[in-house]
Amino acid sequence: MNYLFASLATLIGLLIGSFLNCLIWRLYKNETITGRSYCPKCLKMISWYDNIPLFSFAFLGGRCRHCRKKISWQYPSVEFLTALLFMLVFLKNSASPDFSILLARDWLIVSSLMIIFIYDLRWQLVPMLVVWPVTGIIFLLNLLLGVSLYSIILFGVIGAAFFLIQYIVTRKKGLGEGDIWLGLLLGVTFPTAGELALSLCLAYFLGAIIGVFLLTSHKKEWKSKMALGPFLAFGAIITLIYGQKIISWYLGLF
Ligand SMILES: [Zn+2]
Q: How far is the CA of 41 from the centre of ligand 1 (A)?
């Protein structure tokens, strides 16, 4: 029975992933989310049969039916990853007594992190229209799950302060204001010292690896900026799904 529900979770993730792609583009273009999808290159409307997650991209060979220009790899990647993460989060929570609230919270976190990842990677901007409401909703859901108000506020402030200090010390050169709000979101999402620290460590660890790789391949200069959002989103997703396991393993070392 669990397999059936896990497949359903994957299917929902696939559809949500498709919706997220649309949302990312419309947030950037400042458009409403109603109205039909169109090709960003030739602006022709996309029929429903050309808008089926993963399958249409494969069937059309990754090109628009009308103008034959390439469709970005972002589209199938976001659809595939959202489907995978929705399934993993479902399996992680399936035995919990608070299953429905946990699933709603974690699916919301996965979706918003996916938007932040792509948006900041493409345009070096943190989409505040996503970060602010999501922070509020996760705050409420964590209260519903029995997390103390004190912990949520404390770790929210710690998360924000972590980036605010860097923002002041580097005189706004190292990171942007959006990263401070992302810090608040992370703290509210992970209101424990272990999980918040883990998500930040994973982000900086991956950032360091990618940074060294880009420097040695001469793709980036020392001075050039790298957006922090994609790394923070990566660290948060790993923490969301495997955080408890990694922390138990780490504590077991001592
Ligand atoms: Zn086109």
A: 5
Report which of 206, 198, 252, 197 is spatially closest to residue 229, judged by C-alpha positions.
Answer: 206
> How far, in Å, is the centroid of ligand 1 from the Cα of 63?
8
pTM of the prediction? 0.93
CA of 70 to the centre of ligand 1 (A): 8
Distance 65 CA to ligand 1 centre (A): 7
Cα-to-centroid distance, 111 and ligand 1 (Å)? 26
Mean pLDDT of 198-213: 93
Model pLDDT for residues 79-101, shown as the tens digit of each residue: 999 999 999 999 999 999 999 99
pLDDT tens track for 177-198: 999 999 999 999 999 999 999 9
**Is residue 59 over pLDDT 90?**
yes
User: Side chain identity at 87, as an amino acid letter?
Assistant: M
Q: Name the helix (H) or strand (E) containing 154.
A: helix 149-169
**CA–CA separation, 191 and 171 (whole Å):** 28
Token readout for 86 is 């929705």
In the Cβ-directed half-sphere of 5, how many Cα atoms lie within 13 Å?
Answer: 12
Q: DSSP letter for 33, please.
A: S
